Every structure is written in structure tokens, then in C-alpha cells.
Amino acid sequence: WRSRGPVGEGRHWTEALLAGAEEVVPALRAALLMGAGDLAMTRGEFSRAAELLEASITLARELDDWPTLAHALFLRGTTAVYERQFDLGQEFMDQVIDVASAIGAPFWHAWALTVLAAIARGRSDHTRAAALLAESNAVCQAERIAWPTTLNFSLMSEIATDLGEFDRAEALGREALRRAWEIGERRYFAGA
User: Are the C-beta atoms of residues 74 and 112 closer than 8 Å to each other?
Assistant: First the structure.
């Protein structure tokens, strides 16, 4: 539902499952809470997203479900960033990096660095943002992770635009589009 929609339908069904999921295996409940929180975030329902994601985080911690914990922390931090709560977003991304390092999950490490770069850009710290994007790209290259790299190039393009480096911004934006096309990620085209 997140990728192909309709997101509202996904929200309806995940909320319905959660309403009747008291007897569901706790690990499945943690995943359902995370999925419902993600869909709520996608729809811009940030307070509901935060509520669902924090419940997922709590349950994942109780279960020592590290993969769900990393994902839910990432989504909760992203929700905070969408609301421009940069300090809170940074706290969650720092936790994502800790969990990702503990379980050997470079995908989440790379994504957290990307979001930290977006936070730095939001604070107009372009030097830090560029350094974090370079670090994320290094993780992606070493681990052959394609998806965050696409967003990284898009963010680098936005930073170049912020700095008035329009030719560089265009080149980076084109590279982001090329990479998005390669991996079949069509959502980036609307933003471009």
C-alpha cells in the first residue's frame, strides 16, 4: 500500500487488524504497529504515526526484535523530521545507528545517515549534511545498497541549490533520477 496505494485503504486494513489483534503473536503485532505507523506518516497523520510507532518500538524492545526496532525507530525519527522536530529526529536516528551497528544492518545505518543529513540541511549546516551524505554513500557502495544512494543524490542536489550552485544541482538531480530509474523507484520522479 505504501508504494502502490491507495494508502488510505492500507491504513483502514492495518487499523482493523490492530483492533482485533490482541491475541496476535506479539512479534506480528509489533510489525503491524510499525506498518500502520508508516502508512499514517505517509498520509501526513503525524500524531497517529508517532503513537503507533512508539508502541511498535516499545513492543520490539520487549521482544528483543532488533530488525523491527531498527525500522520503527527509523520511521519515528523520519516522522519527527517531517514535523521539523530535528532534535527528536536526531535522537531516533542515533538510536537507529546504534541498533544497526549491533545487529550488522548497514541498510539502516545508511538510511539513518541520510536522514541525519536532511536534519543538518534543515539546520542550514550544509557542510555537515554533505559529510553525512558522503558517509552514507560510502556505506551504500561498500554494501551494494542502491536505494538510499538515490535519495542522497537528490539531497546533494538540493544542497547545491541552497548554495546557488545551479549547474552542479542539475547534474546531481539528473544522477538521482538516473539511479531512481535503474532501481525502479518511480516516486522520485514527481519530486524532480
Answer: yes
pLDDT of residue 2: 52
How far apart are the C-alpha atoms of 160 and 172, rounded to whole Å?
8
Angstrom distances, CA of residue 167 to CA of 157, 158, 162, 164, 182: 10, 12, 12, 9, 23
- Contact 96/111 with Cβ under 8 angstroms? yes
* Cβ pair 137, 172 in contact under 8 A: no
Euclidean distance between CA atoms 4 and 189, whole angstroms? 15
Q: What is the mean pLDDT of the chain?
A: 88
Centroid of chain to Cα 159: 19
User: Phi/psi class of residue 45: alpha, beta or left (left: φ > 0; alpha: ψ in -120 to 50)?
Assistant: beta
Cell numbers representing residue 106 in the block: 548497514
What is the pTM (predicted TM-score) of this model?
A: 0.87
Contact of 133 with 113, CB cutoff 8 Å: yes
43 contacts: CB under 8 Å, gap ≥ 6: 7, 8, 11
Query: CB–CB of 109/139 below 8 Å?
Result: yes
**Pair 57, 76: CB distance under 8 Å:** yes
Name which residue leads in pLDDT, 107 or 19: 107
Tens of pLDDT, residue by residue over 116-139, are 999 999 999 999 999 999 999 999
